[in-house]
Specification:
mainly beta; two-stranded antiparallel ribbon; globular; seven-stranded antiparallel sheet; Protein Transport Mog1p, Chain A
């Protein structure tokens, strides 16, 4: 595993054969040789803003894109998954780390659904934020 740094000083671990690209505050992570999908991350410093209901925030974002969205709250993380009209399977997460809101999405062809799930979850759990000062 190797460590990748992205905007706001956030760090995470990805497999050595994965690549990372950053553009306009969005980080894309993927395996260029054997991967079936891509993981995208962005983060926002919410500072001293009032507590954010991550489930409502994610639901609001997804309602603009899809119908019949179900957002689940698990340990302070909001999560949803959906297949779009083009046959692409999407997973979405929104969660807070200190004063940083982190938005994560993963997509792959629906026929590859589940192939990279355990690896994607390990990457997400490895996210480390800078101290909030």
């Amino acid at each position: 595993m190797k460590i990748v740094n992205f905007n706001n000083g956030i760090k995470l671990k990805i497999p050595n054969d994965w690549k990372s690209e950053e553009s306009d505050g969005l980080v894309a992570l993927y395996d260029p040789e054997n991967g079936v999908g891509a993981l995208q991350l962005s983060s926002y410093n919410i500072g001293a803003a009032s507590p954010t209901d991550v489930s409502k925030e994610l639901e609001s974002y997804l309602e603009d894109k899809y119908e019949n969205i179900v957002v689940k709250a698990i340990d302070g993380h909001a999560y949803s998954s959906v297949e779009d009209e083009d046959g692409i399977y999407w997973r979405y997460w929104l969660f807070l780390k200190d004063v940083i809101a982190i938005f994560v999405s993963y997509n792959c062809d629906k026929s590859d659904k589940g192939v990279e799930d355990s690896l994607v979850e390990k990457i997400i759990h490895s996210i480390n934020c800078p101290p909030p000062f």
